[in-house]
Amino acid sequence: MNKRLKEDGSSRKKILFTSMLFMGLGHIVYFKQYIKGLFYALFEIIILFMIPTIVSKLNDMVTLGVLKPDLPVKERDHSIFMLIDGVIVLAILFIFIIVYIISVRSALAEYKEYCIDKRIKTNKESISRALGKAFPIFGLAPSVGLIVFFVVVPLIFSACVAFTNYSAPKHIPPNNTVDWVGMDNFAAMFGGEAVWTSALGRVALWTLVWAILATATCYFGGMIMAVILMDNKLKIAPIFRGIFILPYAVPSVVSMLVWQNLLNGSFGTVNRTLIQLGWIDKAIPWLSNEWVAKFTTILINLWAGFPYFMLLITGTMTAISSDLFEAAKIDGASRFQVFKNITLPMVLYQTMPLIIMSFTHNINNFGAIFFLTGGNPVVSDSTITSAGGTDILVTWIYKLTVNLMKYNYASVLAIMIFIILAPFAIFQFMRTKSYKEGEF
Amino acid sequence: MGNKIIKRINLTTVLVILTIISLGVLYPLVYVISAAFSPGNSIASLNIIPFGDGFTLDHFKHLFNNTKYLIWFKNTLTIALGTSFLTIVVASLGAYVFSRFQFTMKKSMMLLMLILQIFPSFVGMVAIYVILLRINGLDTLWGLVLVYLAGNIPYNTWLVKSYIDTIPKSIDESARIDGANNLLIYRKIIMPIARPIIVFLGITSFTAPWMDYIFPKMILRSADKQTLALGLFSFVTDKKNEFTVFAAGSLLIAIPFIIFFIITQKTMVTSFGSAAVKE
Question: Which long-range contacts (CB under 8 A, 24 or more apart) does A400-406 make?
Fold first, then answer.
């Protein structure tokens, strides 16, 4: 092979071809970067050796195994392992392709420098170069590895399950196999099976209502408290502030379980107290009537959530320049006018991103529902769908997975959450400073 | 004169309203404290007036003598410390790279991480279970730490990156001229300046595992590997109601939480607020 490179850039094709022929070959042949080149080559060799495994794993992913009832359970095809292995293999192949592209680009960049410098870099130069370049790779490797195997692969797996019939009682490995069923689950959830469709509509609507009300009540509750306590005539404001942040400091699982017990319909302390006081005649079904329970979840969430916004808005308000208030006072504005025209708009503007974050958090607020009501009370379709009166999408996903083992339907719901929340994530991304400044 | 009276009435009304709200806020907390020291077991048998049943330390003795409370505590502490430490290292290193280096696919990786953090991690729990099974991570504390760590990275890398972006690049440049390499710049320059956000990250990732329920339930099986949340939850299931023991156990964990929170709340809220607002 002709190892001489032209300095006018006309050898670009040759380098491109060599680098694409085998990963790292360009580095070794033309630039004498043996270590870097060998690293690349080694990666490709490992992948080449694994080709039989890769092919069989991908094949398994397509077929998801065949039913072999006469074999002992341990030796039967396990569709779920096959699916997960397939997803992992795809992830590894994806990383391989990315590294391949990086290797080719790096060879071309090397050539560009060669054309400028008219010489190959010395060993010392390229080693120190490689060390500098290696830092981002080593810095990101733990993040990428963990995210790929514990976040991306599981999520892609879940997305795949939405297109299979992985569900109890008939399709639970290893006794049975799972099969691809195309869009059947979506068809069933969106109109095909009336019970599931109505449950989905009910739960999805309540999830949205819950997220909006939970965010709004906590935000305005917190704001009212912040404004009242900011009033400097109140000498003991710090004491009240100290009391009000307590719910935020208590771990939420503990407080939700406590409330669940206090609000219990028959033996809960709240009802017993109210009856004792003579304020009510019979027990209020705090958690056992669908609509009262919905109200209760919002109310208890307000209890747990207003301190966060109270602290935050107090912080924001102290940051608003006091000149503004002074000027308004001189102009004869009443306190309500000051609040309406200065405080409210400024605080709203400043905290808007946090309101959106809180909204997306509440869409996924598993703890506030699960530990307070458990998604109960049961409603007409609960025996089939397991979705109770206060279940939101995430708690329903949990119940479908753990209690009913209807993984396929749970995955459809996960995809729905994605569709609801992805626009918010992208919006958040476009709002960031680095995006706006076009740094990427 | 009349004006003064109106003002006083106003103030009194505000005080009365605040007092009523305070009672509502304190009610469950006071009741938990009283339940922890009250004789009896289930919440049905408790007096509706706090501390109306007398005083006992039996539930605390029961926790330490007859349950594995101390083991639960030790397990949870191990998990929390491991998660917190590893999250700080991995997320800040990643954030530094994202903030200071240019590389292929940087933008897609950042967007991907932002999209990934919208899913609650348990959406993929079947796959996580199988992956842990493959690497022998089931029923181990480190398996749980890995799951928490992976779940923490996407959002927190963003958080720390936004903070590091505000540190002028000229500081690194001058250090580089003085011969400092990337790792040294990260350790000696970036990390100290980014301390507020690192502290915030450490605290949030330390506190979260204490009360998580889903993953410990799925991953930890044997009695000696349980966490506090699992243990406490087992006192108030559908089958039995030992509310007083639950209250005692919760109190022991809530008190350090509250003290810790009150000490750190100012830094927490300001760094959280500013981190999110500044972005």
Answer: A401/B122, A401/B125, A401/B126, A404/A167, A404/A168, A405/A167, A405/A168, A405/A172, A406/A167, A406/A168
Which ipTM score applies to this complex? 0.84
- Mean pLDDT for B172-187 is 88
Residue A257: list chain B partners with CB under 8 A: 232-233, 236, 246, 250
Select from A303, A414, A424 the Cβ nearest to the Cβ of B25. Answer: A303
Other beta carbons within 10 angstroms of residue B225's beta carbon come to 18
Residues B91 and B153 sit within 8 Å (Cβ to Cβ): yes
Q: A98–B105: do the CB atoms touch at under 8 Å?
A: yes
Of A260, A353, A401, the CB nearest to B276: A353
* φ and ψ of B3, to 5 deg: -55, -40
Residue pair A23/A43 in contact (Cβ under 8 Å)? The answer is yes
- How many CB contacts within 8 angstroms connect chain A with chain B? 254
**Which residue in the set B21, B44, B120 is minimally distant from A394, CB to CB?**
B120
Shared domain check, A210 and A138: no
The answer to whether the bond into A169 is cis (omega within 30° of 0) is yes
Across the interface, do B29 and A98 touch by the CB < 8 Å criterion?
Answer: no
CB contact under 8 A, A151 and B213: no
- Please say which residue of A144, A161, A178 terminates a domain: A161
Angstrom distance (rounded) from CA A310 to CA A248: 10
Which tokens in the block code for residue A305? 């959530």
CA–CA–CA angle B245, B247, B249 (5° rounding)? 70
All residues at 6 or more sequence positions from A46 whose CB lies less than 8 Å from its CB, including other chains: none
Domain containing B164: what range? 76-235
Q: What is the CATH number of the domain that holds A236?
A: 1.10.3720.10
Extended strands (E) in chain B: none
- Quick one: B221 and B128 in the same domain? yes
Report the chain B residue with the minimal C-alpha distance to residue A301: B25
Whole-number Å distance between alpha carbons of A367 and A364: 9
> Using 50, 70 and 90 to split pLDDT, how confident is the model at B78?
very high
A433·B257 Cβ contact <8 A: no
Instruction: Find chain B residues with C-beta within 8 A of A245's C-beta.
Output: 261-262, 265
Under an 8 A CB cutoff, do B279 and A433 touch?
Answer: yes
Tell me the residue range of the domain where A259 lies: 186-436
Task: Tell me the CATH number at B228.
Answer: 1.10.3720.10
Question: Does A303 contact B117 at a Cβ distance shorter than 8 Å?
Answer: no
**A111-139 burial code (b ≥16 CB/10 A, e <16):** beebeeeeebbeeeebeeeeeeeebbeeb
Which of A98, A147, A424 is the best mutation test for B, with the most CBs of B within 10 A?
Answer: A147
Q: Chain A contacts of B36, Cβ < 8 Å?
A: none
Q: Taking 60 as the threshold, does the pLDDT of residue B48 lie above it?
A: yes
Reading phi first (left if > 0) and then psi (alpha if -120 to 50, else beta), residue B139 is in: left
Token look-up 């309101």 returns A355
Q: Flag if B273 and A262 touch (Cβ within 8 Å).
A: no
pLDDT tens sequence across A149-162: 999 999 999 999 99
pLDDT tens sequence across B199-220: 888 888 888 888 888 899 889 9
Same domain, B150 and B215: yes
Within 8 A of B232 by CB-CB distance, chain A residues are 253-254, 257
Joined together, the tokens standing for residue B1 give: 């004169």
Q: Which two tokens stand for residue B72?
A: 């639960």
User: Can you give the pLDDT at residue B279?
Assistant: 36
